[in-house]
Amino acid sequence: MKLTSRCLRCVQAELRAWWLKGRMTKAALPSGTSSLGGKNGFPLKKGSEPNIQTILMFCSRMDDRGEVKCIKFSIGNKILAVQRTLKSVDFINFIPDYPHTEFSQECKTKNASVLGFCWTSWNEVVFVTDQGIEFYQVFPDKRSLKLLKSQNINVNWYQYCPETAVILLSTTVQGNVLQPFAFRNGAMTKMSKFEIELPVVPKPAKLSLSERDIAMATIYGQLYVMYLKHHSRTVNSPGAEVVLYHLPREGICKKSHVLKLNTTGKFALNIVDNLVVVHHQSSQTSLIFDIKLKEPECAVNTHQPVLPARSIHPYRIPLSGPAAVPTQPPVPCQLYSSSWSVFQPDIIISASEGYLWYLQVRLPPAVRLLQDKGKLMDFLLRRRDCKMVILSVCSQILEAQENGSLPVVATVFDKLNQVYKEYLEAEQSYTAAVESGPTRGAAAQKRPVRTQAVIDQSDMYTHVLSAFTERKDVSHKFIIAVLMEYIRSLNQNQITVQHYLYELVIKTLVQNSLFYMLHQFLQYHVLSDSKPLACLLLSLESTYPPAHQLSLDMLKRLSTANDEIVEVLLSKQQVLGALRFIRSVGAHDNVSARKFLDAARQTGDQMLFYTVFRSFQQRNQRLRGNPSFNPGEHCEEHVAYFKQLFGEQALMKPSTV
Amino acid sequence: MLMISPKMASGAQEKQFTQSLLSFFIYNPTLGPREGEEEKKILFYHPSEVEKNEKIRNVGLCEAIVQFTRTFCPTKPAKSLHTQKNRQFFFEPEEHFWIVMVVRNPMIEKPNKDGKPPTIEYQEEEILDTVYGAVVRQCYSMYKLFNGTFGRAMEAGGVELLIQKLEKFFYRYLQTLHLQSCDLLDVFGGISFFPLDKMTYLKIQSFVNRVEESLSLIKYTSFLYNDQLIWSGLEQDDMRILYKYLTTSLFPRHSEPELAGRDSPLRPEVTGNLLHYGRFLTGPTNLKDPEAKFRFPKIFVSAEDGYEELHLIVYKAMSAAACFMISASVELTRDFCEQLDSLVGPQLTLLASDICEQFTINRRISGPEKEPQFKFIYFNHMNLAEKSTIHMRKTASVCLTSVHPDLMKILGDINCDFARVDEDEEIIVKAMTDYWVVGKKSDQRELYVILNQKNANLIEVNEEVKRLCATQFNNIFFLD
């Protein structure tokens, strides 16, 4: 794992200054800021950077209006909402040509205090109060809000997942009954509530589920509520756990996964690239879990970390700006500091250093840490930037060439081709749907996305196989076995093998003079027919004569290569054979007579020339009622030669009948 | 040994005798060049009970014929000698070593009235040179497969060793020669390939590669199913003779217990938790037997520097057989065999059932097998692939054909005609028995068809053969 601040670098100085001024201390950071850096938090993403100036300007203008509890842009940075009191939220338009004057909205419920608010679209906002939620639509032009819907419920605290627009409310005295609400297009849906199992039920009942131990995130496209279940001394468990509750749009929320942390202490959660990352403060390490990785030795939904615990890659703060001296080394940043705040999905804020980072997963070290190559592939194939890593793993496996690595190679190929095939199928059904017209549900079908996990034959060829077959220190037996294994795997997944792979096989076989092996492969059509392959075989004839027959057979099967067959036969001076062949396929009427006559003359066999010549005269007679050749056929030279050999009278005369 | 098969000809008390082996000997003229030492030339003589002087006379005669004919064509000495009663075949496989086989012509014994001795009619033209010439060459190839060249034995232990080896090998081998059932297939010496889809074939490849990788002692592997070849790691010529041995000798010897059923030793082995039907056809019959010997037959195959000696392990599970060949310099142990058994047994069992399943599916797709109007033999010189719908399954003792020997003789004759020229050609013959026989030669391929349509004319026969080519051989290039 490593930290990046790439999107932030330019705004760093300002933000830092702003934070350190104490306008927004850590304590003042409301829980709602979990969306910081996300869709509707601070406009931190590239392209929206100018807005930071606006915020700063704005902030400096509202100094005297009381402490800012929370500040959030609506989606698309259209409207800024600011909460200063427990009763109301203020709004400022950031849409050009709209009035810039602030307007305010008080919560409707009597005696309720606003715990926070969340934007669910560019103009819809939800107030969460201790007594329920209020769903508003904002009219920036009228500088007013309209209540769309509200719900009374006692709220201890809440969490918001901006990606899915789902708000999770903690209710009941113990706080462990969670009530989710989903928002979409002005509609509010109450989802089914669920209860988090507490390790110890306190007596008398008191608030026992802290909002710090709950987080929401989308993993593999599904919304999960993650509960950090601390180790309890009374229950005999070896360590803390993260319990994942799957929260479907419809249906009941179910406990779905348990991640074993095998240790105790302070933890924080992030989601990066669909991996659950659990930071452990005291050991200064992080654990990575992949909920799709099946663990055979564990119960169905219990997961152990994919990799051993590792620390985040050290981050050095480059000193930049006018104060920076070039010779000054970058300052290492304190990792796992107690001043860190972690936000979903992948944000870490270091309040003391004034940094906001995105957490990233670095895949290359995982290669060394995961011994089981099959499992490693499963892991890598689900990652975003996996292609080069996967290809390098393939090369590594082939290079290592340990005894018994062939089954491993086979497993890896099968896994890659499974993903490759799924993509091809999706692409195919999409194309079919598009072709069948928009009437038949094609609109519903999206063009399949080609992720990096789709590793096709040209990737394998370019990055792995072609270099591998060049290696001199590897036995040809192993090289051929690997190539065959790849071809087998492609075939098993019904993927059409590209001819360059066959050429690689043939090249390797020929280099090692394994012609009989090649012959057998062709005999069983392991190397599928194609014109390029047939031509390659023809070129092998001088070193391996049977290649001629193999090539002709292949051309015959292609059934589109009749011209090539004629060429091959003529080049072998099998003029009659060529003539008989062209007749048998019914193309006799269209072939160039000159080509045949040339070949026949070259043989020096006068009778052969006579036969071929007469055969074409007969053809002309049949087609045009005249045995003579058309000027366009350029056969004058041959007519003259024929006369010279056999005399004028041997020429066929136009039939008078 | 005289092979007599008396047939009752219509009415008359005729007795028919098929061709049979009269004698078989091997000699080297350089071993006894001086007068009085002629016996030394003879390395092997069958039948051994023949009187010494007669042996010397016969060998001398052959020597003389070969020497005499050499004056006409030094590069091509005589290959056979036709006489009224028998025919002799000469073959010089290694310099100065000659193998001679004398076959008695088939004959008919017609009883005479009045108590006169029966007249014997020799059918001199019934025997084909090509067929029996091939049989002699096969004898040598088979010897060489198991013993290496004559020269090798001479180097290793002089004439004594060679004589000993020849005696040991040919004593048994000649008993298995069934001259009366030799035909065109012996000329071809082809290999029958098992038809298989690409995917199953690739699975077999994968299996072979994995086994060779984990048991790195294995140098070559060949794979057969139903006595038909699927994969050969050996070169073509070595595989040809090994295939001959497997299908005409080793497999038939082991198929009887399988067919016997109840008392068969075919009980599934359990390795780990996997059930398998694998067993060794060569080497130990029972791995668990503490007395078991781990000795395998040794074979000689060609290598870059002459030949190499290999252990031949034949391992079979159901209808799938794998031959593993390991350098003879390695001592094979119980450990190795157990390892092989536990690795190969389960996988081979699985593959065998996979192949069987695929095979039945393919057969179902291609429709129920109708008894065709024609029978054919196909052979491709390039890959030695042969296919015959004329021959029944070969067993250890006989090779059954479903057509009359006369027709087989016509096929042989056509083959001789083809051998004479390089060009592609086609020959159509109407046999005495109203069958049509068609021979086609295209490039390196030969096809012989026997049609049972006595009323058909030449054009119809030609059309029929074209149809056959289009249906049975549509994926190869066959000139019309």
Automatic annotation (TrEMBL), chain A:
<dbReference type="GO" id="GO:0035658">
    <property type="term" value="C:Mon1-Ccz1 complex"/>
</dbReference>
<dbReference type="InterPro" id="IPR049040">
    <property type="entry name" value="RMC1_N"/>
</dbReference>
<dbReference type="InterPro" id="IPR009755">
    <property type="entry name" value="RMC1_C"/>
</dbReference>
<feature type="domain" description="Mic1">
    <location>
        <begin position="383"/>
        <end position="630"/>
    </location>
</feature>
<dbReference type="InterPro" id="IPR040371">
    <property type="entry name" value="RMC1"/>
</dbReference>
<dbReference type="GO" id="GO:0031902">
    <property type="term" value="C:late endosome membrane"/>
</dbReference>
<protein>
    <submittedName>
        <fullName>Regulator of MON1-CCZ1</fullName>
    </submittedName>
</protein>
<dbReference type="GO" id="GO:0010506">
    <property type="term" value="P:regulation of autophagy"/>
</dbReference>
<dbReference type="GO" id="GO:0005765">
    <property type="term" value="C:lysosomal membrane"/>
</dbReference>
<feature type="domain" description="Regulator of MON1-CCZ1 complex N-terminal">
    <location>
        <begin position="59"/>
        <end position="145"/>
    </location>
</feature>
<dbReference type="Pfam" id="PF21029">
    <property type="entry name" value="RMC1_N"/>
</dbReference>
<dbReference type="Pfam" id="PF07035">
    <property type="entry name" value="RMC1_C"/>
</dbReference>
TrEMBL record, chain B:
<dbReference type="InterPro" id="IPR043989">
    <property type="entry name" value="CCZ1/INTU/HSP4_longin_3"/>
</dbReference>
<dbReference type="Pfam" id="PF19031">
    <property type="entry name" value="Intu_longin_1"/>
</dbReference>
<feature type="domain" description="CCZ1/INTU/HSP4 first Longin">
    <location>
        <begin position="22"/>
        <end position="148"/>
    </location>
</feature>
<protein>
    <submittedName>
        <fullName>CCZ1 homolog, vacuolar protein trafficking and biogenesis associated</fullName>
    </submittedName>
</protein>
<dbReference type="GO" id="GO:0035658">
    <property type="term" value="C:Mon1-Ccz1 complex"/>
</dbReference>
<dbReference type="Pfam" id="PF19032">
    <property type="entry name" value="Intu_longin_2"/>
</dbReference>
<dbReference type="InterPro" id="IPR013176">
    <property type="entry name" value="Ccz1"/>
</dbReference>
<dbReference type="Pfam" id="PF19033">
    <property type="entry name" value="Intu_longin_3"/>
</dbReference>
<feature type="domain" description="CCZ1/INTU/HPS4 third Longin">
    <location>
        <begin position="370"/>
        <end position="468"/>
    </location>
</feature>
<dbReference type="InterPro" id="IPR043988">
    <property type="entry name" value="CCZ1/INTU_longin_2"/>
</dbReference>
<feature type="domain" description="CCZ1/INTU second Longin">
    <location>
        <begin position="218"/>
        <end position="344"/>
    </location>
</feature>
<dbReference type="InterPro" id="IPR043987">
    <property type="entry name" value="CCZ1/INTU/HSP4_longin_1"/>
</dbReference>
<comment type="similarity">
    <text>Belongs to the CCZ1 family.</text>
</comment>
<dbReference type="GO" id="GO:0016192">
    <property type="term" value="P:vesicle-mediated transport"/>
</dbReference>
